[in-house]
Amino acid sequence: MKISVVGTGYVGLVSGTCFAETGINVVCVDIDQRKIDMLNNGKIPIYEPGLEDIYKRNVEKGRLSFSTSLKDSLVDADAVFIAVGTPPDEDGSADLKYVLGVAREVGRNMDHYMVVVTKSTVPVGTSKKVKAAIQEELEKRGSNVPFDVASNPEFLKEGSAVEDFLKPDRIVVGIESKEAEKVMQRLYKPFLLNGHPILFMDIASSEMTKYAANAMLATKISFMNDIANLCELVGADVSMVRKGIGSDPRIGNKFIYPGTGYGGSCFPKDVQALVRTADEYGHSLDILKAVEAVNYRQKSVLVGKILKHFGGDIKGRKFAMWGLAFKPKTDDMREAPALVIIDHLLQKGASVVAYDPVAMEEARRIVGDRIGYAKDEYDACVDADALILVTEWPEFRMPNFRVLGKLLKSKIIFDGRNIYEPEEMAENEFTYYSIGRKPVLNQE
């Protein structure tokens, strides 16, 4: 089989590369010549564990190639996957101009039956618009080339996307014909051999499934953050509460870790888009509006703790920051809590020196020289008034507290991910603030 994957961003590149790993011939297409040149020269434009090895192996075997020509990629293709961006518009709705632009170009160039698959996260009803755009272009050509549309949302977690694609929890496919179902069944057959379920459904349900899944996970995060803030006020320990409710199989222990709020490319924009879709239909998703509000507030929780500790005045103080990416195992800083914290600290006259294992280059692109960049986590702490932990990278979990205590001007840690234990902080004579737990206060 042969497929075309349009878009070499996070979803498109991972999907195309993993499809090639199963023996399918894949052409990944992008209008960004720089990206295509990178990929044709042995370099990948995103950081994702495990992706580079699969990419190199399949390029060498001739199953994976890259092009700026969508027209050429459609030759003999059984399916074309649309995996371009759907950024939030000014009103929070998903901007579909890139998706529909691809659909129109497909309509202008297709010359045989194929399935046009939306892989991008799109609102309910998008596949109808894709179908209409293709049909319109075919009519302009006076052509009656048959085609089907399908919806195949991705459920990839940044940092484990390759594993998620190759060993999926489930494969969701929205179709409207038996022929489309047959093509999609063949494409995913290698993944079904290990018992991974493929769920065929109508297209609208498929599109809704993706948004509902991300909205539910975002809800669990905001719920736990709200509970954590209440725990501090009433003297409870959110770590104990988390264990208590997580042992209930109806709730489970996933996504109930309190922190500094969610970020990334999916949860923020998908929640906004779902809220907007509901508004368009005259239905208010009040729970998700509250989820957004809680998340917005949570990104500033550490700043509040910092200001309270220093009596409201941090002008001239220096802060070390560990972690910039919105989560570990990625360099993605979209909607990252670190950006909100940095802005607040700089506005108050403080300075920041940061370190992240993989997101330093991305931070320089977004933040520029407004902050300093350290060569490692300990370098960031030299003469800093306090350490702020924002991203729970594994290498931050067991630092040498004796060394930290000597490097920091004051032995103070603001832990936005609760990766340290209050008892250990007390033993090492640190003043320690976390989320949803009593602070450890030591007089220096």
Number of helices: 18
How many E strands? 14
List unreliable stretches of 5+ residues. Answer: none
Give me the CATH fold name of the largest domain: Rossmann fold
SS strand fraction: 5-15%
Q: How many distinct domains?
A: 3
Question: For this structure, what is the CATH homologous superfamily of the largest domain?
Answer: NAD(P)-binding Rossmann-like Domain
Rg calculated over all Cα atoms: 24 Å
Strand order of the largest sheet: 3-2-1-4-5-6
Average pLDDT score: 94
Described by strand count, sense and barrel closure, the largest sheet is: 6 strands, parallel
What does this structure look like?
- By secondary structure, the protein is α/β, with parallel strands linked by helices.
- The protein folds into 3 domains: 200 residues, NAD(P)-binding Rossmann-like Domain (Rossmann fold), CATH 3.40.50.720; 87 residues, Orthogonal Bundle (N-(1-d-carboxylethyl)-l-norvaline Dehydrogenase, domain 2); 135 residues, NAD(P)-binding Rossmann-like Domain (Rossmann fold, 3-Layer(aba) Sandwich), CATH 3.40.50.
- Helices cover 44% and strands 13% of the residues.
- It has 18 helices and 14 strands.
- Strands 3-2-1-4-5-6 form a 6-stranded parallel β-sheet, with helices on both faces. Strands 11-10-9-12-13-14 form a 6-stranded parallel β-sheet. Strands 7-8 form a two-stranded parallel ribbon.
- Helix 18 links the parallel strand 13 and strand 14.
- Helix 9 crosses helix 11, helix 9 packs across helix 12 and helix 11 runs antiparallel to helix 12.
- The model has no long low-confidence stretch (mean pLDDT 94).
